[in-house]
């Protein structure tokens, strides 16, 4: 796989500009600038300082409580046998079981060494992992926009950096938090498709963009056609909005904890679950996902 930005990040050359003097530019989220060389130690320290800063914020406590409540509910569903899931974990105390069972996947963090928003989001992720005692190695991170220096930083911190672009198609086998801050709809839609059953969806706790906001901001026809999996669950998923202080509006706006209760899913017609077709997005003009390099 190519490590570079691939499709949607590469801005087109403007007409009339020569090849040599105007190399391709990579568009990053506003306020983000690509660095050439990364000082790993300095970057890790900056992230740890941001963690310390966030830890003292009231809203951060509310995030931890809200995520913890949703995670506990998901774990309880597994304990009660509501979901088919492999739980061959050692039993060394209630907290031990919980930590070992929980996984986390983080997509779309962005270039956190140069982008302040992404750095705050990474700091919040670390606080959430800490609050649930999830081992850093049990948190997988992936963004095609990561530079090789950023991947080194994440590994240095103990996180697992995925090497393949899953396009969000990550199958859950145990309770899993998906941390997907301001990711494109296609990434969420792919994730839902991959786990499209009344057994798998209840294992997922998504910390990310509100599905209700996506529905309200997208033309009805496009939402139903291109993002059919989000469109089918939006009415039956549980969404708890997460607080966001005004000074961090660009960082944590429009986020929620999203969960799927079996009871609610079972209200959907049985046909909902039959033969889910893999999303294609061939006619979606502003697709906010970097796809796998199919020519590899
Ligand atoms: C709108 S940006 C959000 C960046 C950052 N979280 C923020 O809020 O500023 C969407 C992010 O999704 C990432 N992304 C696109 N395709 C992806 C994929 N297949 N897997 C993981 N991340 C992906 C992009 O590289 C980009 O960093």
UniProtKB/TrEMBL annotation:
InterPro entries in alphabetical order: SRR1-like, SRR1L
Record's compositionally biased regions (Basic residues): 11-22
Domain of life: Eukaryota
Pfam annotation, one family: SRR1
Residue ranges of every copy of the SRR1-like domain listed in the record: 101-258
GO cellular component: a single term: cytoplasm
Membership in a protein family: Belongs to the SRR1 family.
PANTHER family reported for this sequence: SRR1-LIKE PROTEIN
Annotated protein name in UniProt: SRR1-like domain-containing protein
Source organism of the structure: Sphaeramia orbicularis (orbiculate cardinalfish)
């Amino acid at each position: 796989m190519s490590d570079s930005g691939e499709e949607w990040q590469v801005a087109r050359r403007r007409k009339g500009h020569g090849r040599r003097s105007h190399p391709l530019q990579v568009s990053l989220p506003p306020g983000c600038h690509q660095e050439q060389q990364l000082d790993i130690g300095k970057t890790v320290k900056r992230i740890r300082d941001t963690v310390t800063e966030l830890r003292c914020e009231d809203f951060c406590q509310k995030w931890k409580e809200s995520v913890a409540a949703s995670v506990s509910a998901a774990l309880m569903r597994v304990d009660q046998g509501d979901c088919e899931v492999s739980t061959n974990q050692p039993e060394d105390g209630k907290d031990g079981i919980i930590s070992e069972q929980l996984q986390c996947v983080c997509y779309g963090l962005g270039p956190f060494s140069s982008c302040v928003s992404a750095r705050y989001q990474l700091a919040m992720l670390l606080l959430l992992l800490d609050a649930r005692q999830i081992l850093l190695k049990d948190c997988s991170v992936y963004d095609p926009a990561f530079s090789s220096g950023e991947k080194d930083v994440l590994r240095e911190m103990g996180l697992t950096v995925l090497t393949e672009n899953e396009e969000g198609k990550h199958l859950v086998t145990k309770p899993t938090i998906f941390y997907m801050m301001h990711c494109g709809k296609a990434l969420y839609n792919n994730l839902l498709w991959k786990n499209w059953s009344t057994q798998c969806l209840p294992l997922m706790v998504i910390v990310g963009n509100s599905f209700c906001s996506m529905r309200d901001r997208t033309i009805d026809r496009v939402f139903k056609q291109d993002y059919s999996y989000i469109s089918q669950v939006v009415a039956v998923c549980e969404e708890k909005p997460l607080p966001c202080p005004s000074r961090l509006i660009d960082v944590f706006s429009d986020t929620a904890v999203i969960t799927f209760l079996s009871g609610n899913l079972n209200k959907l017609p049985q046909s909902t679950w039959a033969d889910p077709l893999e999303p294609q997005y061939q006619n979606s003009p502003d697709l906010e996902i970097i796809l796998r390099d199919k020519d590899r």
